[in-house]
Design brief:
- It is a single chain.
- The protein is an alpha/beta fold and 149 residues long.
- The chain is 32% helix and 14% strand.
- It is built from 3 helices and 5 strands; from the N terminus they run αβββαβαβ.
- A hairpin with a 5-residue loop joins strand 1 and strand 2.
Length: 149
């Protein structure tokens, strides 16, 4: 009768147990390589294909035109761009400019000492001339100015 002597393993053949951990090192290596590839390739994709474009004498599309600015000076004088106009000729002159240049935005500027009613009257006259988009201009406060001014 012989007695069998065990090898000390608990049922696993050859004493190997499965490893249940994921090795992250190869994954990180691959991700870093991809990151470097994209960092090098991204600027090349933005520039596009280099071309030698032909020259033309055609005018630029959408040439910049001078903005339509209506100003109300502290002395009560009205200006369209740099041209002084009277209160009676403001609406006809704006209509004339609109027919020549098309519809756009009219920027209204007024001195801070001008009464609110005068500014509202000016806005109404600009609206009468047919411009649908009117914007008021202001100046941002300087960094050293207080909030009370």
């Amino acid at each position: 009768m012989g007695m069998s002597v065990g090898s000390g393993s608990s049922g696993d053949e050859d004493g190997y147990k499965p490893l249940a951990e994921i090795n992250v090192t190869p994954f990180v290596d691959v991700m870093l390589v991809l990151l470097i590839i994209f960092m090098v390739a991204a600027p090349l994709m933005v520039q596009g294909v280099p071309l030698d474009l032909p020259k033309t004498s055609a005018a630029k599309v959408g040439a910049q035109k001078k903005p339509m600015v209506v100003s109300l000076a502290p002395d009560g004088k009205l200006y369209i761009r740099d041209e002084e106009v009277t209160r009676e000729s403001l609406v006809p002159r704006l209509m004339q400019i609109k027919s020549a240049e098309g519809d756009g935005i009219v920027y209204v500027r007024a001195d801070r000492k001008i009464a609110y009613g005068d500014v509202m009257e000016l806005l109404g006259r600009v609206g009468e001339s047919g411009f649908a988009r009117v914007s008021l201009l202001s100046q941002p406060p300087s960094s050293g100015a207080s909030a009370n001014n």
